[in-house]
């Protein structure tokens, strides 16, 4: 077999696929690694390593590919590499044969010039050499950055990292994180922080060109955030103003970068990490001003929603609380009253201080402000419930608990029952169930209460209104209402058959006969099957599916 007669010697289908790979530029890193031996990478569903031994006259004397193809013929990847070798030889003539010999005649300065030109024309050579130089030596930020970027570069295909290349892309990240594991946060705190920040930044950038459905890149980010948190928590020695200033200066661009990228909660995580130092000295004013600087940054102003700013205002409130200046806290809460997070914190502050009337007032105000946000309204009412509980206002608690149960909040059913006296409970329960019957939101809880209170007549009525409910509810009814359960279950199956218009629908209806048998026994199920056959003699698909039902 020769480079010049591949089309005649390789099966047509394999040859065509090889041509496609070659023409699409899938052959990468082609190099004559030794005399007459060529290596290359062919990118397909995976990267395949190919080696071809070819004589000067073009005769192929050996080939190897890491793909699973097994045959006496060349595989499509080997064909692609052979075509690339042929093209290279046609362009360069025989000069490639004596490359090593020619290099050996060059002086050091001439070799460096050749190497410089090669790196400019072939970025892969540049990356390969960087990789080689990074194999030894101490880890610093530049080395870590190069390790991470080189691994990511090798994983990129068509400017994107597919899900099955994420492990490859993260090889550099894993190496850096493994190095960090060997450091002591009490001695190497700042180094851990700097390298972790670098990992966070590089991985955040990687997210924009990768399919991270596995969550591995995000996990690396949050693992690095944890390392920053621990390093700051275990910071050795005294934390003075100069140290705080240096750390805030270090974190600031990374916080802004995370805000601008808007793909993770890294900005909040970094701020929470450094706020631990509030306990190490009187830095409240410094932290407050720093947070304000972040809030007024271009990156924060460009965010479409105010959720992040609201969270950062919450951090500022926390800093003020650490100072213990109640007037400053009250003034801050009044200024930023529009933020639910601030009102929430204000309510719990009042709650902790035993100012329950203030909690109620804030709750009422918040319900009006957030009337279009049902989730928040429910939260404010639950805080009011706790305040009424502390105040011993049973009547108000009953009203709120009743409302919560109508919304489907199961825990408040038991609280409501405990609050209402035994003598008044039947009447209250009757009113509650009557309202729940008309509320789709509380349907599941409504049925649970009927079972808990043994309201079986109402449970049976519900099954008559919703025939499909009998599948789940028959165990609670069978002992007292066996005939009614049979009647409703039968009606349910007949309705499915009546609505059926194809074999799949008939199959579904017949599967219900199996569950009918579990509920009412084999004899009843056999009787139902015979009855259905009698009622629908002209539905062959239905009769065929009935015949497949195995009854015990």
UniProtKB/TrEMBL annotation:
Alphabetic keyword roster: Metal-binding, Zinc, Zinc-finger
Matching InterPro entries: Znf_SWIM (IPR007527)
Domain SWIM-type: 48-86
GO molecular function: zinc ion binding
Annotated protein name in UniProt: SWIM-type domain-containing protein
